[in-house]
Amino acid sequence: MKKTTVNPRSLVAIGLFFLMSCSTTTHIEKDRSTDFTRFKTFSWMDQESGKNRINDLAEQNIKMALREELKKEGWQEVKTNSDVLIGYDMLVEKTVKEKNNPVYSQPYSRLYYNPYTRRYGTLYYPSQFVGYDREAYKTKEGTITVSIIDVKTDKMVWQGWTTNEVGNTNLTRKEIQNGVRSIFRKFDVAKN
Length: 192
Hints:
The two termini are 54 Å apart. The chain is elongated, with a radius of gyration of 27 Å. It has helices at 8-22, 56-72, 173-184, 188-191; strands at residues 25-30, 41-44, 76-77, 84-104, 108-114, 119-125, 129-150, 155-166. The protein is an alpha/beta fold. Helix 2 runs parallel beside helix 3 (173-184).
């Protein structure tokens, strides 16, 4: 009997494929002329008050998540004379998503009689693609946006954002942390 073995590299590749398919989509924009190595300190941009104001708990959670990620980059928070200002925004909005599921016909077989051989035979007809079953459902999407502004030039040098389905009208601490982490996974792209 022949023994089969599983290649560990193929298991890792399959695992990474499934992890990547579950991750959120993150986008960044940056000023290519900016030298990010000269930035070492940051402070917070004043957030606007009013209708779109973020609640205090969410504001604490996003600042904590941003501090952690910026600290990993070697940046330090200061009250005055910072190199950059960090701004953020969170938005939860209702949206309609569409799911398309393929539909196939039922396979079937048919019995026939062959008069020359005096035997019955079977014809098999496999299932065939007939179209898509479209299903629309309502959901909520949460978007987190992080902006970095150079204090000396007063222009935005980097912006990252991510959008993901959420279960509530407010983002939870875990959703905020995951969103900020996914944004800063692409932050090293800004340095190159």
